[in-house]
Amino acid sequence: MVDVSSPSDPTPDLDPPLAARPKRRWLRRALIASQLVLGLGLGLAAAEYGFSKRADGAFPHVNFYVEDPLLGVRLEPGASMRFRLHDNPVSVINVNAQGYRGADWTAAPGEAEILVVGDSQVFGLGVNDDETFSARLAQLTGRPVLNAGVPTYGPLEYLAITQEILEQRQPKTVVYVLNFLNDPFELERPNLERHAVWDGWAVRLETAPDQVREFPGRRWLLSKSQLVYAARRWLHERDQAQQPQTAELGLPSEGSWEDLVAEGSRSIAHDESVQVAADESRLQRRERLEKVEQEFRSSHDAIDELILSEFEEADPQQAKIARSRPGDIVEDEYSESARTVTLTAAHIRKAANTRKAYIEQLRKKQRRGTSKFNELLTTTESLSEEIERLRLDLVAGGDQLSYPSVFDDHLASLADLCTRHGAELIVVALPVDVQVSADEWVKYGIEPSAAPDMEPSLALLGDLLTSVEALEVGARGLDATKALREAGPGAFLSGDIHMTAKGHAALADALALTLTLASVPPARRPRPGLPEGRSFPPAGSRWTAMDEVSVKGATKAGCSTQIVGAWLKVVCPRSRGRRAPVPSGIEILVGETRESLSLVTADGLALVTPLNREPFTARFDWDKRAHELRITWPTNAAGEPKFSGEIVKVESSGRPPEISAEAEQLCACHHALTQQVDCSSASDDIYSRDRGCEPSCSALWGQVSAHCFASYAGEGLDCALLLACSQGDPLAAPRCPAGFVNATATNACYQLCDERHACDAGTCTPYNGAQLCLP
Q: Which of 149, 423, 477, 537 could hold 728 in an S-S bridge, CB 3.0 to 4.6 Å?
């Protein structure tokens, strides 16, 4: 029997060769691995689909940024995405070939293109391309509008983009939108220091990695995958949960609403402190002005005392009259109970000739060596000059009370840029949602009653508009707060600061209205103050202290003449009596008219005019007679022009008296403040008792100004300010209507004009850096 189990016998080989076993094992493992990869891939694809389906294919952040060496980031040309913030509707974002939102810009720039610059609010996060206010503005105006808003940008980037597009396309209008959530805090910090690009996302620079490991498909995977985004967001939220939380509406690198409230409070506090300081400064300067005016009067009185020292012993009463001036009250020792008589120009003239004789006599003595008189003259002239300096100082420093906007220097650069390229500028102050309505706090989990008061922060928007108005390029500002408030609930996204389509539409409507109502920017305003070589009319106290100037025929015509600085005053009081001529008018025939002040009252005629060394002729009319004041400037031996004046009688025109109601009110105010009366009709003897004295305004001068009356008359009548305004006092300037500005030396309001603003009356004339409609 054969032992079949014997090892020496061959047996059938039922297993594969040992060399083939590893190959089959590898195939088996490869099959398992492929099954795992396929399963994982299918699982990831399913998960990607699930997450994408849940998010409706939308991301809450822009994911197509590319790096830029100057601006930090730009938008990838031709990119698109679906976008959604919180539970708001999904919107679709498209980037054109130029790297900005919306359809491609035309190859040839349009003549009326509007460039809109800003950040994510201008870009329109949360709304579709055709729902941004730029797109709606194009529909409303019929003009092409370029939406150059880019999320993450700040004022420094706005300025760079504006310059870039102005140079490329020369748009006609620039709409510059400043977002008050973060723009005030990004002025000193460029985007390069705030954001970096990480796989298509713009992230805060402080959170960006130093470097990344590149691999195929990384950009798509880390910027387009909803699954990867969800994982990264979960990891981020897990890390944040381990750190203390702070409630913020903005990124730390962009500022927050707390910054707005703090800065707004500083603005209001500054305004209040500046107002208090300005009031105190003005009070001190006014007190100084009053003190100097008093010193001026005292110095001039000392000159009078010196001049009349000898005259006093010869004729005390005439001396007292001789050193008096219109409106002064002199005791009349011959009147009952020592009652007073108010001196008029007529009384003073009775002693004028004697006074002049003594003045000349004293001057001769001074020339022989006495110096007291010259010292007093020098002091008086110095005080007179200081009075003018103080008045001008009060005018120059009286209006600078507003808090300087943080954008002041930035706006100056922007305005210069727009001017160089011939583009009009509109600056939009865009508030944060909680600035518009306290109800917006609810979406952040804060009840309005417990919400921070955002009202102080609105002062920042006002500061910005004030700065825009102060630009000398005719720029205009638009505060979007009112338009967004009127849009009511729904102007902002749920749980976010960005505007909805409703908010964008409201802002577009406001912008379109701004462009429609004022299709061109306002005319430039003149520089403050007067042009070189011009001066304001002297204050009343300076006229009172000055002697008459020699004008041939003045006494015969019944007029007094004075010169202070570069100004001449002529006052012709009415003579009392039943047959005395009645004042009827003043007409300037040759010379200055723009800054001449003329006034006709029932008590006299008054003219105050600047002396510019040019011939001047004015006609003074009464109902029964007429005179002409003629001023010439013949040259003296040294070839210098010298004042020469005369008043001559001319043929009467029989012009009837026409005393306006406004002139009568000025007269009443003058009497109320000075208590001036005329006693000349009581008796021809100036020493008689003052029976029959009547209220008078024969010493009044100035002009009837509609703007002065609009500012200081009516129910709130202020006689002091009304008279000061009518006499060209710059400290009582009137409030001019829109489109007008207070200019020249006589408190007149003139219409602003330029090549785009025609004059309603007068001629558009250059004036102090601008143009005014002047007669």
A: 537
pLDDT at 109: 86
The answer to whether residue 342 is domain-embedded is: yes
The Cα-based distances of 569 to 77, 573, 697 in angstroms read 74, 13, 15
Of 608, 727, 599, whose CA–CA distance to 659 is shortest? 599
Residue 188 CA to chain centroid, in angstroms?
24
Packing angle, helices 372-396 and 345-367, rounded to 10? 120
Beta pairing partners, 277: none
The CATH number given to whatever domain includes residue 390 is 1.10.287
**To which residue do tokens 């009078």 refer?**
304
CATH number, domain with residue 423: 3.40.50.1110
Note whether 227 and 363 are same-domain residues. Answer: no
β-pairing verdict for 763-767 and 91-94: unpaired
Query: Could you tell me if 385 and 423 lie in one domain?
Result: no
Decide if 172 contacts 113 (C-beta within 8 A).
Answer: yes
For residue 386, give the H/E element and its range.
helix 372-396
Final residue before a domain boundary, out of 353, 375, 405 = 405
Q: E-assigned strands of 287-422?
A: 329-331, 340-342
* Beta-sheet strands, E only, within 543-612: 560-564, 567-573, 583-590, 597-601, 604-610
Cα–Cα distance between 267 and 401 in angstroms, integer?
11
Same-domain pairing of 96 and 233: yes
DSSP state at residue 337: G
Could you say which of 517, 534, 567 is where a domain stops? 517
What does the block give as tokens for 203? 């992230």
Q: What is the pTM of this model?
A: 0.55
- Span 572-627, pLDDT tens digits: 988 766 678 889 999 999 998 888 999 999 999 999 999 988 999 999 999 889 99
Strand spans (E) along 433-550? 476-479
Indicate the pairing of strand 201-204 with strand 114-118. unpaired
> Which tokens in the block code for residue 639?
């070839």
Q: Which of 150, 157, 179, 161 is nearest to 250 (CA)?
A: 179
How many CA atoms are closer than 13 Å to the CA of 146, on its beta-carbon side?
Answer: 31
The three-state secondary structure class of 92 is strand
For residue range 285-339, list pLDDT tens digits in order. 667 777 887 787 787 777 767 666 655 555 665 555 555 544 343 333 333 333 3
Closest CA to 591 of 552, 555, 632: 632
Residue 483 CA to residue 486 CA, distance in Å, equals 5
Same domain membership, residue 486 and residue 502: yes
pLDDT at position 704: 93
> With pLDDT > 70 as the criterion, what percentage of the chain qualifies?
74
From start to end of 382-520, where are the E strands? 424-430, 476-479
Confidence of residue 226 (pLDDT cuts 50, 70, 90): confident
Tokens of 504: 């964008």
Contact 177, 464 (CB under 8 A): no
The more confident residue out of 543 and 10 is 543
- Domain of 511, in residue numbers: 65-187+195-241+406-517
